[in-house]
Write a structure and sequence with these properties.
heterodimer, A: about 250 residues, alpha/beta, Rossmann fold, four-stranded antiparallel beta sheet, B: about 290 residues, mainly alpha, two-stranded antiparallel sheet, 11 helices, 2 strands, globular, binds adenosine-5'-triphosphate, binds magnesium ion
C-alpha cells in the first residue's frame, strides 16, 4: 500500500534521514521505534509531504506522492497526526472534528462519523462546544486522532500518540488504536517511544537509528531479539551493571 | 434641541460614517494579518487605485455607478489575489520584516503607477446619492453617510457569517490558528490565503468608492491605511471586533477635534487618543487576553 524507497531528507545541512525504505501492507499496524533524534518524526513528515525528500521516492497505491503539497497528500488518503497535539485552539471540539472532514468528497454521513468518534473517545462528547485549547493534553491528543479519522484516511500516520500521557491513558489510546484498525480496517503507521506497548499493539515493526533502519520484522519476532529486549524493552540488562554494559556493548542488530 | 447639541450629534454621525470606512480598511488588514501574518502596507494604495479606477469607469467609460463599483471590486480582488499568489508567497517563512518591506515597496509602486496614469489632479465622480440629504428632526444627514453606514454594516455582517458559519470560513480561522494542522486536514491553505487577500482587496475597493465622494479622488487617499492601522492598535491588534470599534472611535474623535480643538489637532488627535488608550490598556480596547503568539 505504502512503499518508501531509499529516501534521504535534509534540514539545511542536517541529514536527518539517510536512506530509508519501508513497506506498509494494507490493514496492518506498523510501528517505527527508535531513540530520540533517530529521525522518526522526519520520516512521517516526509511521507505526509510536510518536508520533501532530497532523494528517493514514496509511492502510495501505485502513485508517487513525494513532492506533493501536504494538503494534496491528505486528500489522497494519507493523514498525519503530528507530534504534540496540533489542534485548532480557538475552534470548538465539534468544529475541529468538522475540519477533519474538510476535504472529503462525500459529505453525506459526517454526522454519523462524528458520533462514531464520540463512541471511541467519549470524553470528547462531553466537551463538544468547548474551545479545543481548553482541553487537557490527553483530550487534545484524542481530538487530534479523532480529527484525522474524520478524513476517513486509508493510511493513518501517528507520531508518538502517547507523548506526555499517563500510563493508563497511554494504554487507553493504544487500545482504541487497535480497535480502530480492527473495526474500520484503517492501515496505521505509528512512531512510538514506548516500545513495549507499541510492539504489543502493532503487527509489524521497524527500528530506526540515526536516520537508518537497523532492524525490521513482525513485532513478535522483534520482541524476541536480544538487542531490542535490552535497549528498548529494558529487559535483560539489570540495574547497576547494566549501565556499564550499555556503554561497552556494541549493538549488532542480529 | 439646542443648536450645539445638534451640532455635536451631527459631528458624531459624520464621524461614524468616516469611521465605518476606517473600520472596513482595518478589517481587511486584520483578515490579511490573520491569514498570512503580513501587515499589508499596500492596502491603502489598493483603495486609492480603486477610487481612480472607479472614477475612470464612471466618468470616462460612462458606466452606471453600481456596475462600475462591481467591476472595481472585482479588479481590486484580482490584483490582491495575484499579489499574494505571485509575490508574497515567495517570502513565506521569512521574518515578518521582509513582508513589511515587500508590501511597502508594492505600495510605492502602485502609488507611482496611479500618478503616472492619472496625473496629480484630484477629481470627483457622481454617485446616486451625491448632494441628497435626509432630515431627521433637527438633524440633516447626507444620504452618502447613510449609504456608507449601511454598506459597512452589510459587509461586516457578511464577513462574520462567512467566518463563523460556513465551512470555508471556519477553515480560514483554522489555518490562521494552526497552519500545519490545517494542511494535514487537507485544507488548501495556499489557495485560501490568496482568497482572503482577494476578499480584503474587494473591501478596500468598497472603502475607496465610498471615501472618494467625501474626500475627492486623490493620490492622498492611501493615507487611510495609517488611520486603519491606528484603529487596529486602538481596538486590539488581531481582533476583528476591535478593528470595528477602533475605526469608529478614530472617525468620531477626528470629527470632534476638527471643530472643537485648535487648527492642526484634527490629524494628530487620533494618535493622541491612541497613545492614551495604550497607556491604560496596553493590548488595546478589545485585545485578546490570551495571545497565542508569546
Ligand atoms: N526543523 C529542523 N531543523 C533542523 N534539524 C532538525 C529539524 N527537525 C529535526 N531535526 C534534526 O533531525 C534529526 C531527526 O529528528 P526527528 O525529529 O525526526 O527525530 P525523532 O526520531 O522524531 O526524535 P524524538 O523521538 O525525540 O521525537 C535530529 O537530529 C534533529 O536534530
Ligand atoms: Mg519525534
Amino acid at each position: 500500500m505504502l512503499s518508501v524507497r531509499n529516501i534521504e531528507t535534509w534540514y539545511g545541512p542536517v541529514n536527518a534521514i539517510k536512506g530509508v525504505s519501508i513497506d506498509v501492507a494494507p490493514g496492518r499496524i506498523v510501528a517505527v521505534l527508535g531513540a530520540n533524534g533517530a529521525g522518526k518524526t522526519t520520516l512521517l513528515k516526509t511521507i505526509a509531504g510536510v518536508v520533501d525528500p532530497f532523494k528517493g521516492s514514496i509511492d502510495f497505491e501505485d502513485a508517487t506522492i513525494n513532492g506533493l503539497d501536504p494538503d494534496v497528500v491528505a486528500r489522497r488518503g494519507v493523514v498525519l497526526v503530528p507530534e504534540g497535539r496540533q489542534i485548532f485552539p480557538f475552534l470548538s471540539v465539534r468544529e475541529n472534528l468538522q475540519m477533519g472532514s474538510f476535504a472529503r468528497s462525500d459529505k453525506s454521513d459526517i454526522q454519523a462519523d462524528i458520533e462514531r468518534i464520540y463512541g471511541w473517545f467519549p470524553r470528547l462528547r462531553e466537551r463538544v462546544a468547548q474551545h479545543a485549547g481548553l482541553l487537557s493534553g490527553g483530550e487534545q491528543q484524542m481530538l487530534a486522532i479523532g480529527r484525522a479519522l474524520m478524513a476517513r484516511p486509508k493510511l493513518l500516520l501517528l507520531d508518538e500518540p502517547s507523548l506526555g500521557l499517563s500510563p493508563l491513558l497511554t494504554r487507553e489510546i493504544f487500545h482504541i488504536i487497535a480497535r480502530i484498525n480492527a473495526e474500520t480496517g484503517t492501515t496505521i503507521l505509528l512512531v512510538e517511544q514506548n516500545a513495549g506497548i507499541a510492539l504489543s499493539t502493532a503487527h509489524d515493526g521497524y527500528i530506526m537509528e540515526l536516520g537508518r533502519i537497523v532492524a525490521a520484522g513482525t513485532c513478535a519476532a522483534l520482541s524476541e531479539k536480544e538487542d531490542v529486549k535490552e535497549f528498548y524493552l529494558g529487559g535483560s540488562a539489570s540495574a547497576g551493571k547494566g549501565q556499564a554494559r550499555r556503554w561497552k556493548r556494541r549493538k549488532t542488530w542480529r | 434641541m439646542e443648536s450645539h447639541v445638534v451640532q455635536l450629534v451631527q459631528l458624531c454621525l459624520n464621524g461614524i460614517a468616516i469611521g465605518a470606512i476606517y473600520a472596513l480598511v482595518a478589517l481587511g488588514l486584520v483578515l490579511i494579518y490573520k491569514a498570512t501574518e503580513i501587515i499589508n502596507f499596500a492596502h491603502g494604495d489598493i483603495l486609492m487605485a480603486s477610487a481612480f479606477v472607479g472614477w475612470g469607469l464612471i466618468t470616462i467609460a460612462g458606466l452606471p455607478f453600481w456596475l462600475a463599483a462591481l467591476v472595481t471590486m472585482l479588479l481590486a480582488a484580482a490584483l490582491s489575489y495575484v499579489l499574494e499568489a505571485r509575490v508574497l508567497r515567495v517570502i513565506v517563512g521569512q521574518p515578518q520584516f521582509a513582508g513589511a518591506m515587500l508590501t511597502l515597496a508594492l505600495a510605492f509602486m502602485l502609488r507611482g503607477a496611479v500618478s503616472m496614469a492619472f496625473g496629480p489632479t484630484s477629481r470627483t465622480f457622481p454617485t446616486p446619492w451625491t448632494g441628497q440629504t435626509t432630515h431627521l428632526g433637527p438633524l440633516v444627514i447626507a444620504d452618502l453617510n447613510l449609504v456608507i453606514l449601511v454598506a459597512a454594516l452589510v459587509i461586516t455582517a457578511l464577513l462574520f457569517f462567512f467566518l463563523r458559519r460556513t465551512s470555508v470560513g471556519i477553515s480560514v480561522q483554522a489555518a490562521s490558528q494552526n497552519q500545519l494542522a490545517a494542511y494535514l486536514c487537507g485544507i488548501p491553505v495556499k489557495r485560501l490565503n490568496s482568497m482572503v487577500w482577494a476578499m480584503a482587496g474587494a473591501m478596500a475597493a468598497v472603502g475607496g468608492l465610498l471615501l472618494a465622494p467625501i474626500a475627492l479622488v486623490d493620490i492622498g487617499l492611501w493615507y487611510v491605511v495609517l488611520k486603519a492601522l491606528a484603529a487596529l492598535v486602538l481596538g486590539g491588534f488581531g481582533s476583528i471586533p476591535g478593528a470595528i470599534v477602533g475605526g469608529l472611535l478614530i472617525g468620531i474623535v477626528e470629527q470632534l477635534a476638527g471643530v472643537y480643538l485648535p487648527d492642526g489637532f484634527k490629524d494628530v488627535m487620533a494618535y493622541l487618543v491612541l497613545i492614551g488608550v495604550l497607556v491604560l490598556w496596553p493590548r488595546g480596547i478589545l485585545g485578546e487576553a490570551h495571545g497565542r503568539r508569546v
